What we know:
About 45% of the residues lie in helices and about 20% in strands.
Amino acid sequence: MSKNHILFITDAWGPQNGGINSFNYDLTIAMSKIVNSNCQIVCTCYDASKESIEEASSYGIKLLHLSSNLDTTEIVVVDILKEKLNITHIFCHDYISGKIGLELIEVVENLEDKLYSFHHMNPEAYDALKQNFNAVNTDTKRKLQLKLFELSNKIFCIGPKLRDSAIDKVGSKDKIVEIIPGLANTSSQNAPEGYFKAAIIGRISKDIDKVKQYDLALAACAKVDSMNHFSPDSVISLVGVSPEDTENVIISSKEILKKYNAKSLKLNPITYLTNRRDLFNIIKKQSIAFMLSAHEGFGLVGWEAIAAEVPLIISENTGLYQLLKERFGGFGIGNVLSVDIRSTIYAENSYSEEELTNVTNTLLRYLKNRDLYKKNAQILKNYLEISFTWENTAYDLAESCFIETIPKKFDLQRLSMPLLNILNIVKGINKRNIQYEMLVDFLNQNYFKKWLILFGGISSTLCENHLIETYSKWLNKNKNAKLFICFEDENALRYRLEKLNKDNLIDKQKSTIEINDKIKIKMEQLNTLKNTLNIKLKNKEQLTFINISTPLYFYSIIGDSEIIYTPLLDKRSSDTFSLHIDDSHVEIKRDIVNSIVNVLTKEGNIPKTLNETLLELNLKLK
């Protein structure tokens, strides 16, 4: 049987020529690990090297050699057609490779409904800041982008800023899907005491300085150096200098250091790196990183700094800053140092004196408490890495495009190993109904003061009258307490019941009718729970119900910092054991909380009060 081919159109394999190829590299590797065996990932690659072909092949990815770059559309299309692929999906990276996708669906029958696109950049917002801005070229990009988006089944937007850009361009949310790149799996390193190393990372050339604001970061470092805040061995690295513009960058950078009376700061220009290991070896050794872009669709360089646990000074006009603010509020933006950057397009300098003062003061604020900001960077990375993995990104993409995948396994990686020595990490192991009895005791004794989170299926026991009475008495007594009931909706419940019915139940003759009856009963119990509590509660705002459309692989009860964890392991929750996690194992508790955050973040409907509660709990468990 021939394989179904999922085609990603780009011009290089690996992190070459910028962030798009880096994104494509990580995403396609993740996709190759989750697609069914009847599917194969195919990536186009201009002048593919033997090493690239072998590396891609090791992941089961086919590199399709292109004899020309993406500018020569006809040649590229012929190269693709010669392979006689059984194409089920075509993914184009914005207007960079969109022309190839558009040509393919025009010349090949039955491909018009198989086109998908990634939205990486907004040329109208970005190009106008360039030194050699060409309005005709920008308008050409805009028209190509609009045509690509119009004919795409889905538009995958890298982060919230580009999501909003796509909605503005197409005038509808219907085809828009926001996806977030995975956070790189890399280690961190503390700089030796007294050392100061700053990094400006990206494609550095004078043509795009008004966009990226490299000069502003240099000027701020020079001003701080003039105040004798740096040690004699301090270094500022320019990571990603364009080889053809190296001399100009070095000359202008030295002029800035001289202009602002830098004393000891050494300049370390590094040309663009295609080896990710080399790049992260540099990033992780930095004291601080800058991403001061006047406009940035997402900001992969800032994302890489977060992955390496490096404190980040970030422009607020970036997709990354918007992501941290939208998804995590004060916790997210509180763990970076943000500044408002508005490039002065028509001025001689790329930045204003006010902006220079703001960035300088931000850098001084960091220097006064370096240990705190390093700790903040570590907390932020540990929190984000639970939700934002390349595996999650790949599954999100596959689900949106109906690509067949292997089943996703819920993974609490750091929990799984301690479970081998389970008696050391739990206060008790009981069937779930016994844990409910303990919950009643806790509530009756007013042991919990702040919140109770019931995360999981609609349990018949949890809906019983005596428990409803217990909830309402506890809430009415603790006027500031909150009760969150997170439940699987009908579709998620049906998925789990059908899976249980098919594979695991002793009585394998149960019918679909019985499943429908079961779902009906569960929904009726839920409605009874809602209605009764709303009648009994004096303050209705203490109660929140959260619908979950994702079939769950674990349930949990959280009362203040007490956590009971129920791994379902493809069984009924009543048939498995619940684990009451011991207080000494804070890391495991934190993993469980972060896994709940991961589920709710993907759902996209996490209420503000629950988000704040989970953030507070996560910080309490540090």
